[in-house]
Every structure is written in structure tokens, then in C-alpha cells.
């Protein structure tokens, strides 16, 4: 390492690159250090099975990448990032051989949930309608809420366990399984709080903005972020472990 920098960012995952871009935009000289030989953190892809078949090693779908107020300010399309949307964001298989689908439309999803049709609409519709408000208060540092009513309504459900929300809101296995599958992305036991928050956010964003995948794999998000960062004068060094 040579030279002087205003800031050094440790790690080139999406948060590290976002911080580096923010500082570089402010006119600071910034260096990003990455311990691995490739950048990206959880934004990694590799040919794990057959040649030319790219698999995401960690993160795969990225609803928050297209709805985040910060990411929406980045010209990543100019640096090669393309999003691909599936007609149906999610299919959750059940033991009887059927599956429950998370459609982009709340109504289309709810009609597959047997007696929980009205309950699912009641749970999801207010949050999907207010997502543009909720994201301003949820996807950022702590601050005085801009939309306190929407946030309190969300928090009343989110600060619970997924088990509590699923069993308190729904009477049948299809809706419960759908919500549990979403909440399992929290990597928490479903009886633990706040696992419900993950299920709600993934379900809401599935309806509000979809679950897009980057063409060519998650690594292309990191590549686009790094390319934009380089255009701002930033520098990245891989293979440098900071102890």
C-alpha cells in the first residue's frame, strides 16, 4: 500500500462499496481493501456445476437493490447492470406435491390460500400500498420517522416471531407455509423475534417491486458498483487482509 487517503473501507461487499461511493461522491479520496481475490462479499457467482452455468454462491434475489432509496440514485445500468424479473417471484413446495405461489399481485396470491384469502389481503395490502413510505423509514439509519403511522403499523407486526404472525393471522397450512418460507431468510428460529420482520419485508417487496435477479449473476452488482466507484476516482485492492 502506498499513498494517503481520506478514508479506507475494509471489505468490498455491497455495504462497503456503498460507503465508498458515498465518500467518493463527497470528493474524498477512498481506498477499498478486500481480503479475497475477488470483490463483492456476498455478491459472488461461480460456475459450480457445468461450464457456462453461473450460480450465485450467496445472495440471489435482490428486491432491496432496486427499491433502496440510495441504490436508486446510482447509475448502475450505465455500468452494465441489467435486472431480470420472473413472472412469479416465489414458489413454495408443500408436502402434498402442490406449491403455493407468491405472485406480484396480492389478489392473485390470496386466491390460492384457501380460507386465508381475506386474511392475506388484510395483512399485505396496507403494507404494499404504503411501501414507498415504509422504505424511507426502514432502509436507512435511525432517524425521526417521516411516516410514523405506517411505521407503527408495520412494527406492530414485524416485532414478533414469524410463528406468532403466521399462526395468529392464518388458519391453513398454505398461507402459514408461505409466510414461514419468507421469514426463514432471517436465519433465525421462527419462534424468535423479530423473524416476522423478514417475512413481511420479503413478502411486501415481492408484491411491490418483485424479486429481480441480475443478469449474469450477483457478481455483476459488485462489478457495476466497483466500476462506478472507479469512475469517481476510487481505488480497490483485493487480496489484502486487514488484521
Keywords:
243 residues; alpha/beta; FAD/NAD(P)-binding domain; three-stranded parallel sheet; two-stranded antiparallel sheet; globular
Describe what this molecule looks like in 3D.
With 243 residues, the protein is an alpha/beta fold. The chain has two domains: 7-84 and 213-238, 3-Layer(bba) Sandwich (FAD/NAD(P)-binding domain); 90-208, no CATH class. Helix content is 41%, strand content 12%. It has ten helices and nine strands. It has helices spanning 14-25, 63-67, 106-110, 117-129, 131-138, 148-158, 162-169, 173-183, 195-208, 219-231; strands at residues 7-10, 30-34, 45-46, 55-56, 83-84, 90-93, 99-102, 213-214, 235-238. Strands 1-2-9 form a three-stranded parallel β-sheet, covered by helices on one side. Strands 3-4 form a two-stranded antiparallel sheet. Helix 4 packs across helix 9 (195-208), helix 5 crosses helix 6 and helix 8 packs across helix 9. The longest helix has 14 residues, at 195-208. The two termini are 15 Å apart. The mean pLDDT is 96.
Helices, strands, pairings?
Elements: E1 7-10, H1 14-25, E2 30-34, E3 45-46, E4 55-56, H2 63-67, E5 83-84, E6 90-93, E7 99-102, H3 106-110, H4 117-129, H5 131-138, H6 148-158, H7 162-169, H8 173-183, H9 195-208, E8 213-214, H10 219-231, E9 235-238
Parallel strand pairs: 1-2, 2-9
Antiparallel strand pairs: 3-4, 5-8, 6-7
Helix pairs in contact: 1-10, 4-9, 5-6, 6-9, 7-8, 7-9, 8-9
Amino acid at each position: 500500500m502506498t499513498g494517503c487517503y481520506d478514508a479506507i473501507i475494509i471489505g468490498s461487499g455491497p455495504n462497503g462499496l456503498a460507503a465508498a461511493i458515498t465518500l467518493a461522491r463527497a470528493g474524498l479520496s477512498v481506498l477499498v481493501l478486500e481480503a479475497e481475490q475477488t470483490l463483492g462479499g456476498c455478491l459472488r457467482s461461480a460456475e459450480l456445476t457445468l461450464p457456462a452455468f453461473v450460480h450465485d454462491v450467496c445472495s440471489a434475489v435482490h428486491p432491496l437493490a432496486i427499491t433502496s432509496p440510495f441504490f436508486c440514485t446510482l447509475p448502475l445500468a450505465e455500468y452494465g447492470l441489467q435486472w431480470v424479473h420472473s413472472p412469479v417471484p416465489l414458489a413454495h413446495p408443500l408436502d402434498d406435491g402442490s406449491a403455493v405461489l407468491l405472485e406480484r399481485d396480492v389478489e392473485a396470491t390470496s386466491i390460492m390460500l384457501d380460507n386465508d384469502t381475506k386474511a392475506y389481503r388484510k395483512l399485505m395490502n396496507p403494507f404494499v400500498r404504503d411501501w414507498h413510505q415504509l422504505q424511507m423509514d426502514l432502509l436507512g439509519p435511525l432517524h425521526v420517522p417521516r411516516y410514523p403511522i405506517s411505521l407503527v403499523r408495520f412494527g406492530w407486526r414485524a416485532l414478533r416471531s414469524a410463528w406468532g404472525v403466521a399462526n395468529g393471522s392464518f388458519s391453513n397450512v398454505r398461507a402459514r407455509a408461505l409466510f414461514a418460507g419468507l421469514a426463514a431468510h432471517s436465519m433465525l428460529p421462527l419462534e424468535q423475534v423479530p423473524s416476522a420482520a423478514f417475512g413481511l419485508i420479503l413478502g411486501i417487496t415481492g408484491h411491490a417491486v418483485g424479486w429481480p435477479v441480475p443478469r449474469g449473476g450477483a457478481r455483476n452488482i459488485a462489478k457495476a458498483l466497483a466500476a462506478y466507484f472507479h469512475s469517481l476516482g476510487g481505488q480497490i485492492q483485493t487480496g489484502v487482509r486487514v488484521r
